[in-house]
Amino acid sequence: MSTWSDTLQFDTLSLSADAPLPSLALVNLTHWGLVTLVGQDSISYLQGQVTCDVVSLHAGQSTLGAHCDAKGKMRTIFRLFHHRDGLGWLQRKSVMDSQLPELKKYAIFSKTTIEASTDALLGLTGEQAQATIDTVWGGEGDVRASEHGTAVKIDEQRWLIAADSDTVRHLAEKLAASAVLSDDTLWDLYDIRQGCPRIDTDTELEFIPQSMNLQALGGISFKKGCYTGQETVARAKWRGINKRAMYIVSGQAERCPKAGDVLERSVGDNWRKGGTIIAGYQFSDQQSLALVVLPNDLEEGTAFRLADEPESRWQQLPLPYSLEEDA
């Protein structure tokens, strides 16, 4: 089946661990999907389903959030923004088939239409991403709407474009001469370095939102009303029952770590399960990075290894944000 990207070649970049990232890269986000909610009840319906405050989300903002089951375990982590005549919700494509029916389950009682979008998804990364968006898309703010779709700022060096296929194809072809083209492993690298969480099928319904630092990233509102899983999420904050957090780790690996892989930690002369890999990236020299959920009370300097690579040694790196509640 042909797609908007068929005229261009988006390959995995060969980057060593000490190599600078491209000043401008176009990223084909093939492992990501977009959900849209359209209808007068979309905001109120979603407010009762997710961890973030949808009612307070302005047109120029985006937010992270989580959709949980009744026990507070996450079905997905998403980025939410105003899109076309409703809301756009970016998440990993791997959870679409299981998560989307759950999101739609009670929508029959509300005036909202929830469906997977046919819009194409293109990422822009690098120090020139902001200036490029200003030139080719225009507008102001962190979320920029047009008749063709929406541009969303992810962080200081990343923008997402969700638009119709013709628009995305035209933009990509226009920028291809001055940009590096990459598959979405480059997006993975940015997510890991930024400590930005995600849920794939291998980690679905495994963790509560605080286990992946959503409270530190503005993805949980503790002031809004009830939503699915809210009791568990609130109890984790007020009673301090959450014992895990997400961290960045680095080490040598024979293959790229993937979601669901086990990272072991050293305990004296022995090794025990330490945590679960959320996302991984491998450089061309086999140096690797990963996001991993670990106990939040580990001693500084704890050694780690991949369970299926017992000779490997990994170490924890600092997060680019604080996990302290009062920060």
Order of helices and strands: EEHEEEHEEHEEEHEHHEEEEEE
Low-pLDDT sequence parts: none
Strand order of the largest sheet: 8-9-10-7-1-11
Under CATH, the homologous superfamily of the largest domain reads Aminomethyltransferase beta-barrel domains
Number of domains: 2
Q: Could you state the oligomeric state of the chains shown?
A: single chain
What's the rounded overall pLDDT mean? 96
- What is the second-level CATH architecture of the largest domain? 2-Layer Sandwich
Which percent band covers the strand fraction? Answer: 25-35%
Which overall shape is indicated by the principal axes computed on the Cα atoms? Answer: globular
Any idea of the CATH topology of the largest domain? Alpha-Beta Plaits
- Name of the CATH class of the largest domain: Alpha Beta
Instruction: Report, as a whole number of angstroms, the end-to-end distance.
Output: 49 Å
Helix content: 10-25%
Query: How would you sum up the major sheet?
Result: 6 strands, mixed
Q: Count of DSSP E strands?
A: 17
Rg, rounded, reads: 20 Å
Q: Briefly note the structural class of the backbone.
A: alpha+beta
Number of helices: 6
Protein name: tRNA-modifying protein YgfZ
Organism: Photobacterium halotolerans
Pfam families: YgfZ_barrel
Keywords: Cytoplasm, Folate-binding, tRNA processing
